[in-house]
Write a structure and sequence with these properties.
- The chain has twelve helices and 14 strands.
- The chain has helices at about 15-30, 45-50, 55-65, 85-95, 120-125, 160-175, 190-205, 220-225, 240-250, 290-300, 305-320, 340-350; strands at about 5-10, 35-40, 65-70, 100-110, 130-135, 145, 150-155, 180-185, 210-215, 235, 260-265, 270, 325, 335.
- The strands form three sheets. Strands 2-1-3-12-11-4-5-10-8-9 form a ten-stranded mixed β-sheet, sandwiched between helices. A two-stranded antiparallel ribbon has the order 6-7.
- It binds 3-isopropylmalic acid and magnesium ion.
Length: about 350
């Protein structure tokens, strides 16, 4: 039986997860044999059991085929010691323990949402790119600490050859299934880790002569994503650069509330929207559940090979948007404003 662990987490995570599960149940049908198990994570877990990543949550995730995660964190837990906070105490260890080294964030301009973006229509129309972000190395996981004389702090950016190879290989493989263009983003004019990344990437490229490989500095990549995003097909980059560039790239798709993500280790995956727990709108039935819903489509695709059902969800989302339904983050004049639950219902209806 396929086992899916469901982790609502904090803030709007608690509101978008039920909508995603509702949509999943609808697409899977009544007789499906999927097992959904809910566990605590993040601030909610701190409040209930005193730790952001309870052992039983981690164990359940390890034995599951896939994990659905809403969002974690919030001001309530911001003043805890760093290692106990939801981000460093739960999300990062979970990514590391499950070896989720490949984070896939597809950015596609949805025609109905072009006017919701702050960017011009001619710039974002037909954008279709995917960012492959390394997720278990680099600055996020290097040694970090404080020193005296003078008072200082450091985070080390370290990559091993194997860590670079596996993510870059995946990026080339992905490019083969798409428009066969790969852009590796680094800062090789300054960073040694980037020069190493570039060497290995060039070496792997020898096996993939059909793929057109380019290298771009991260600062230029940020500018190019806004200037002319259609030049990109697959982008591969290290953890921190990928974090920053994917928030930026989300606006090409209309809103960060639309950006789905899959964090993979082979077929096993954790699926979560790229946005956070949005404490400012939590509990108000205002959050956009579509990134979470689109993340479940990625789950059906990557963990269960249910491509038709995944497309059904994606088409249903496109349809509700074409019908003019909007949550507040993508609202437009004349649009039909819906709450989180109502948007979930609309997607089920469209299915
Ligand atoms: C993301 C988020 C996380 C990250 C935070 C919540 C730690 O911004 O998934 O992009 O930086 O990876
Ligand atoms: Mg981020």
């Amino acid at each position: 039986m396929p086992k899916v662990v469901v982790l609502p987490g904090d803030g709007i995570g608690k509101e978008i997860i039920p909508e995603a599960v509702k949509v999943l149940q609808a697409v899977l049908g009544n007789n499906n044999n999927f097992e959904f198990e809910e566990y605590l994570i993040g601030g909610s877990a701190i409040d209930e059991v005193g730790t952001a990543l309870p052992a039983e949550t981690l164990e359940a995730c390890k034995s599951a085929d896939a994990v659905l995660l809403g969002a974690i964190g919030g001001p309530k837990w911001d003043n805890l010691p760093a290692q106990q906070r939801p981000e460093l105490g739960a999300l990062l260890p979970l990514r590391k323990e499950l070896n989720l080294y490949a984070n896939i964030r597809p950015v596609k301009a949805i025609p109905a949402l072009i006017s919701a973006s702050t960017l011009k229509e001619e710039v974002i129309k037909n954008v279709d790119l995917v960012v492959i972000r390394e997720l278990t190395g680099g600055l996020y996981f290097g040694e970090k600490g404080r020193k005296k004389d003078p008072e200082s702090a450091y985070d080390l950016l370290v990559y091993t050859e194997d860590e670079i190879r596996r993510i870059v290989e995946l990026a080339f493989q992905t490019a083969l299934t798409r428009r066969k263009k790969l852009c590796s983003v680094d800062k090789a004019n300054v960073l040694e880790s980037s020069r190493f990344w570039r060497e290995i990437t060039n070496d792997i490229a020898k096996k993939y002569s059909e793929v057109e490989l380019t290298h771009m500095y991260v600062d230029n990549a940020a500018m190019q994503l806004v200037r002319y995003p259609k030049q990109f097909d697959v982008i591969v980059t290290e953890n921190m650069f990928g974090d920053i560039l994917t928030d930026l790239a989300s606006m090409l798709g209309g809103s960060i509330g639309m950006l789905a993500s899959a964090s993979l280790s082979g077929r096993k995956g954790l699926y979560e929207p790229a946005h956070g727990s949005a404490p400012d709108i939590a509990g108000q039935n205002k959050a956009n559940p579509l990134a979470m819903i689109l993340s479940t489509a990625m789950m059906l695709r990557y963990s269960f090979d249910l491509h038709t059902k995944a497309s059904k969800i994606e088409n249903a989302v496109a349809k509700v948007l074409e019908q003019g339904y909007r949550t507040a983050d993508i609202a437009e004049v004349g649009g039909k404003l819906l709450g989180t639950r109502e948007m979930g219902d609309a997607v089920v209806e469209a299915l």
